[in-house]
Amino acid sequence: MNETFTKAMARNIFYGGSLFFILVFLGLTYHTEKVLPERDHRENITEQVTLGKKVWEENNCIGCHTLLGEGAYFAPELGNVYKRFGGSKEAIMAFIKYRPVDGIEGRRSMPQFNLSDEELEALAEFLKWTSEINTSNWPPNIQG
Amino acid sequence: MKYESQKVARLYFIAALGLFTGQILFGLIMGLQYVIGDFMFPAIPFNVARMVHTNLLIVWLLFGFMGAAYYLIPEESETELWSPKLAIVLFWVFLVAGALTILGYLLVPYARLAEMTGNDLLPTMGREFLEQPLLTKIGIVIVALGFVFNVGMTVLRGRKTVISSILMIGLIGLAVMFLFSFYNPENLVRDKFYWWWVVHLWVEGVWELILGSLLAFVLIKVTGVDREVIEKWLYMIVAMALITGILGTGHHYFWIGAPEYWQWLGSVFSAMEPIPFFMMTLFAFNMVNKRRREHPNRAAILWAMGTGVMAFLGAGVWGFLHTLAPVNYYTHGTQLTAAHGHMAFYGAYAMVVMCIISYAMPLMRGRIANSNRSQVAEMWGFWLMTVSMVFITLFLTAAGVVQVWLQRYTDTPMPFMVVQDKIAIFFWLRELAGVFFLGGLGVYLWSFFIGTDAEAARDNAKVLAKVNSKATEESTQETARA
């Protein structure tokens, strides 16, 4: 950086450049919001799906699993678990319901959360709705 | 240390290092759970250990940033801190709230904690890195406001420098972006979209401003290079950080339901995100080469150069490795993400906090720098931790590549848990590297307890005398030549 490039120029690039890209980012956010309804199928978000998301959050499922690829990498991806389990909500509910309290010796174990039937059903509905989001064809295959 | 009130930084630094130690211990527990699945189960399930590991990381870095600001702002502003008392009160509030939160994670089931702390009023919990109960989140906002107010008043009262303005923009940005943690729409896609406004715009946005200004401050002090030169660099680094980083958010929008144009937009801008880190490396090495004086604190100089290099490798190179959409399609949410995350956080943020601690702590203890023996131990700590982190990253990368291959790329993809078993060897090696890291941390912490003030004074005098005699010699030679 030589003498012809002054501190004032650097400062202007910082303030001008940042402001410009903040505005572009806000514009793109606005556009994304406009087109999201076609991709997230929000018309299918029922009270059950909302409760399911709350159950998902209040048991910190993201602390082991990934959901659409984000979260912890300790346990399987669940964004497509509904499809992986053959489109069966019952399979999801049964899996969660019958976790042994003391885990399985030597294996990674999912805690027994003692969810009510209503919560189990809601969680399964939430995972079903999640599997229907248009994720640009991610994950690459059913294994997540 | 020129101002009495800078001393409050010491409290913050000590707490930061204590929490850092906790973070590493929980990291080791998790690492072991990766291979011995039922280790400590059901007392500390993986999700709890992970929450403690990542939340402690965030909190200790925040303590570090705050301590750094309390140390740096009075000196830059050439005035005492607006209220040292407020800084101390907020310190205890933050520490107690943080400790209670961690205890809450460990002692009661998460769902119970959510119920106890009013998650029904405004559900914000259970989202990665933002797991803190509502009460804690409100506490963080109060502490952040008080802190920004305190340092802001100090800046307004005194000299305004580029370093203090950039630091203030970074800190205010940190506080403002955190407010998005209170926004949790019931629509998962929108939830994820704005979740990144905290997570990405923190670590790949405003935190880089904090990082840049801390590095610039230490470099001015230890190299004696002209402030004008350093400030011009700082402006360019943070300009590149935001120009690339803001739209770089797009690399998180590839597969969460957002429109497809984010794929090329996110790819292009995040491909440029290594630039500011590369500039930081050049910056640190350049300034140290151009130094006008020898500073007795060689350990601080080592941290300053190290953070440039490691941030470039971890945040820049390892980030770029899987940032392009066609690559990310296969690598998203695998151990490659974990590899990148580990080296990036250590290289950029952990190391810069240790850099400012290395520079400021001896001064707060009444020394220019620590004794030779203490610095040698500190540098051993540096190398042990840094090399261990390189290995942790390499092992996780290997695990990630094999995982991508077996689970995502092959014609006969295998289930997640089957693949995890096949890559267990890398998890064992990572755990071993983690143990070495803990050893390095031990040596680093031990270095604080080595050497008396007298010893430090003697060693520093030696360095300064050598520099002076060299300078005198040179000037005598010059006079002789003339």
Automatic annotation (TrEMBL), chain A:
<dbReference type="Pfam" id="PF00034">
    <property type="entry name" value="Cytochrom_C"/>
</dbReference>
<dbReference type="InterPro" id="IPR036909">
    <property type="entry name" value="Cyt_c-like_dom_sf"/>
</dbReference>
<keyword id="KW-0479">Metal-binding</keyword>
<keyword id="KW-0812">Transmembrane</keyword>
<keyword id="KW-0472">Membrane</keyword>
<keyword id="KW-0408">Iron</keyword>
<protein>
    <submittedName>
        <fullName>Nitric oxide reductase subunit C</fullName>
    </submittedName>
</protein>
<feature type="transmembrane region" description="Helical">
    <location>
        <begin position="12"/>
        <end position="30"/>
    </location>
</feature>
<dbReference type="GO" id="GO:0046872">
    <property type="term" value="F:metal ion binding"/>
</dbReference>
<dbReference type="GO" id="GO:0009055">
    <property type="term" value="F:electron transfer activity"/>
</dbReference>
<keyword id="KW-1133">Transmembrane helix</keyword>
<feature type="domain" description="Cytochrome c">
    <location>
        <begin position="47"/>
        <end position="131"/>
    </location>
</feature>
<dbReference type="InterPro" id="IPR009056">
    <property type="entry name" value="Cyt_c-like_dom"/>
</dbReference>
<keyword id="KW-0349">Heme</keyword>
<dbReference type="GO" id="GO:0020037">
    <property type="term" value="F:heme binding"/>
</dbReference>
TrEMBL record, chain B:
<dbReference type="GO" id="GO:0046872">
    <property type="term" value="F:metal ion binding"/>
</dbReference>
<feature type="transmembrane region" description="Helical">
    <location>
        <begin position="382"/>
        <end position="405"/>
    </location>
</feature>
<keyword id="KW-0812">Transmembrane</keyword>
<feature type="transmembrane region" description="Helical">
    <location>
        <begin position="341"/>
        <end position="361"/>
    </location>
</feature>
<dbReference type="GO" id="GO:0015990">
    <property type="term" value="P:electron transport coupled proton transport"/>
</dbReference>
<feature type="transmembrane region" description="Helical">
    <location>
        <begin position="300"/>
        <end position="321"/>
    </location>
</feature>
<dbReference type="GO" id="GO:0016966">
    <property type="term" value="F:nitric oxide reductase activity"/>
</dbReference>
<keyword id="KW-0813">Transport</keyword>
<keyword id="KW-0249">Electron transport</keyword>
<dbReference type="InterPro" id="IPR023616">
    <property type="entry name" value="Cyt_c_oxase-like_su1_dom"/>
</dbReference>
<feature type="transmembrane region" description="Helical">
    <location>
        <begin position="56"/>
        <end position="74"/>
    </location>
</feature>
<dbReference type="GO" id="GO:0004129">
    <property type="term" value="F:cytochrome-c oxidase activity"/>
</dbReference>
<protein>
    <recommendedName>
        <fullName>Nitric oxide reductase subunit B</fullName>
        <ecNumber>1.7.2.5</ecNumber>
    </recommendedName>
</protein>
<keyword id="KW-0349">Heme</keyword>
<comment type="subunit">
    <text>Heterodimer of cytochromes b (large subunit) and c (small subunit).</text>
</comment>
<feature type="transmembrane region" description="Helical">
    <location>
        <begin position="163"/>
        <end position="183"/>
    </location>
</feature>
<dbReference type="InterPro" id="IPR023615">
    <property type="entry name" value="Cyt_c_Oxase_su1_BS"/>
</dbReference>
<feature type="transmembrane region" description="Helical">
    <location>
        <begin position="425"/>
        <end position="449"/>
    </location>
</feature>
<keyword id="KW-1003">Cell membrane</keyword>
<dbReference type="GO" id="GO:0005886">
    <property type="term" value="C:plasma membrane"/>
</dbReference>
<comment type="pathway">
    <text>Nitrogen metabolism; nitrate reduction (denitrification); dinitrogen from nitrate: step 3/4.</text>
</comment>
<keyword id="KW-0472">Membrane</keyword>
